[in-house]
Design a protein that fits this description.
This protein is an alpha+beta fold. The protein is built from 5 helices and 11 strands; from the N terminus they run H-E-H-E-E-H-E-E-E-H-E-H-E-E-E-E. The protein starts with 5 loop residues before the first helix and ends in a 13-residue tail after the last strand. This is DUF4283 domain-containing protein/zf-CCHC_4 domain-containing protein.
């Protein structure tokens, strides 16, 4: 076993402290196209480098924490209409294998009671959806309190509820509305996000008598939220345990 001294680990971690981990959901993008498109979209942040890992994973390294956070907070991003899922690089982040059972998703929470507008309160609401990762600067500073925008790591085997019910101290039940900036295809068989059920590589073969039957239209794919009340998903959630981290500051 190779035991690494702390100074070596610290030096290695420092090299990636301003990095993001990302992958394209549902389709692979050629590296040259990726570089060309993102250079145009991210030119305001200055220089950055793209490093290719295995299984379609990319590491995006920036020159500063401010540049990294600008990219993270101003998404979602796409190349050729294919969504780029991003999250912070963290020390001791486990290796990422093929088949993404979790994915970071930006959500908007609306109709939030005023007394819930704390890091812990918003975290507790968002934890119904998954593991809260961070909130955008406007939400953290409470500049705009008509809605909260939070990045949540969601699981492929869980629903995307449109409403979170919560109980106020006077017993009143409040419905917090949820909107998703996008919703990736998910395989109901494998419980992963990187392919749809229809495109599943392990789907069973049809019996001869089923060969002639026409398949129903595929309902899966991207769902763009273009305004209030559009393209919402169904379902309800209940309150869970908070784990939210505020957005990093310079």
């Amino acid at each position: 076993m190779a035991e690494m001294p702390e100074e070596i680990l610290a030096e290695g971690a420092k090299e990636w402290e301003h990095a993001l981990v990302g992958f394209f959901v549902g389709k692979k993008i050629p590296f040259r196209s990726l570089l060309t498109v993102l250079n145009k979209k991210w030119s305001l942040v200055g220089k950055f480098s793209i490093h290719t890992a295995e299984n379609g994973i990319f590491i995006f390294k920036y020159e500063s924490e401010a540049a990294r956070d600008w990219i993270l907070n101003n998404g979602p991003w796409d190349v050729w209409g294919v969504h780029l899922a991003l999250r912070l690089w963290e020390r001791d982040l486990p290796p990422i294998s093929s088949g993404f059972a979790k994915i970071p998703v930006w959500v908007k929470l609306m109709n939030i009671p005023m007394e819930y507008w704390t890091v812990k309160g918003l975290s507790r609401l968002a934890s119904v959806l998954g593991s809260p990762l961070h909130m955008d600067p406007a939400t953290e500073s409470k500049q705009l309190i008509s809605f909260a925008r939070i990045c949540v790591e969601m699981k492929a085997d869980k629903e995307f509820p449109a409403v979170i019910k919560t109980r106020r101290s006077n017993g009143e039940i409040v419905e917090v509305k949820v909107e998703y900036s996008w919703r990736p295809p998910v395989c109901d068989r494998c419980k992963v996000f990187d392919h749809s059920t229809r495109a599943c590589p392990v789907k069973p073969r049809l019996r001869p008598e089923e060969q002639g039957e026409r398949a129903a239209p595929d309902p899966e794919g991207w769902v763009e939220v273009k305004g209030k009340g559009k393209e919402k998903t169904s379902g309800e959630g209940t309150i869970g345990v908070p784990t939210l981290k505020p957005a990093l500051k310079n």
